[in-house]
Amino acid sequence: MLQNNSTLKSLIAKLWQKFWEGGIANPLTAIEQITYLIFMKRLDDLEAKRERDADFTGEKYISRFSGKYKVPGSNEEVDKSELRWSNFKHRPADEMLLLVQTKVFPFLKEFEGGSRFTKAMSNAVFIMPNGRLLVEAIKIVEQLFTEIEKDAREGGQAFQDIQGDVYEMLLSEIATAGKNGQFRTPRHIIKLMSELVAPQLGQRMADPSSGTGGFILGFYQYILTELVRKSDPAKLITDEDGFERATMSAILTDKVKQILDQSMFGFDIDTTMVRLGLMNLMMHGIDEPRIDYQDTLSKSYNDDNQFDIIMANPPFTGNIDKGDINEGLKLPTTKTELLFVERIFTMLKMGGTSAVIVPQGVLFGSGKAFMMLRKMLIDKTELKAVIAMPGGVFKPYAGVSTAILIFTKGGETNDVWFYDMQADGYTLDDKRNKIDKSDLPDIVLQYKARNTKKDNDRKARYFFVPKKEIETN
After folding, report:
1. How high is the pLDDT of residue 392?
2. Number of helices (H), then strands (E), in the chain
């Protein structure tokens, strides 16, 4: 498994260090530039494979790199073959930098015209301060792909899975909070929430604030794991967080792929996050990911009653301009942490289920909008569970105490199951080092076995609270 591959870890650390030394200190800028390089390399590798396959079968294949490319803003034309990673990487540093900036990158932006990726790339820029950094970065990216191939050969895990894990590891290095309280949800928390909502193949899933696409990936991986569990449970492995997982390619038939491609939707108001999210899903083998640049709280978004599953970790500290708020949202507030929960409720179909992370203030805030939201959850959904998480779960981004809410639209709340998570498998300081103590497997176990007659000891870690008591408080 990837966490045991020290070579990959050290290469990723080295890549970050080179960008830092090269003057790109903002982690988001660095990850974008690294993403573009990985994409150039991946595009060339995929094309080479298609060419080899066509050569082997004798089929005719026209490469993306055949013919001429007209350089935007000029009358110059170049052979597309010059824009291939395998060709331009041999050029002298400054000559290569100029070629990549003025020709390769514009070509990449037009890749697969009309797709979401092309749309998301429209305002992307290639910022590389000098040719020397480009040469060093290309060298490390090459080493990364060589090591991924070696790991796949020796470890028996698919190249696609390791490649996706490497990209997730790169994303995990973004250690600064974004605007309006945006930050990456730890993968083990996403896995926990996927286990709790237990999606099924064919259900439509969305994340209204999708960021780097972690919840979409959690949904995708959970469903593939369940398919492997039914067909060949021997292929399951237990990951570092105590969850069973299947290799992604083990069960991915064309039919399953088609169903999944049409089942997953993400929306975000940050174009950088849209790009990173699209790339993250593509690196995991989702060829046509559906993440769109969209403010789901605004007047322009009206996909109500559309989704069976919603998993989300909406921004906590933002406010939206009152005039921009969608008329369908009735809470008297501009606070995004409240409006997003209402938006999730409206997006769900009747009988649809959500797992959403909220700051604990949502549970205890005394303002009118806070109370109205809680009343909506009690009266118009079956509020199944509230899982309180310790304050360090989102460090180093933020120390805020949070909770996971699990609710089903249109059900009736009778008793709500509470669980007080003490440990999530990592230290609760800024370092977040792995430790042996984790409540996550127990939460899944106890949630699935919850019983109103037995779970009533208020001194225990988990217990039921009757609806009447919640209404009183």
Report:
1. 84
2. 17, 15
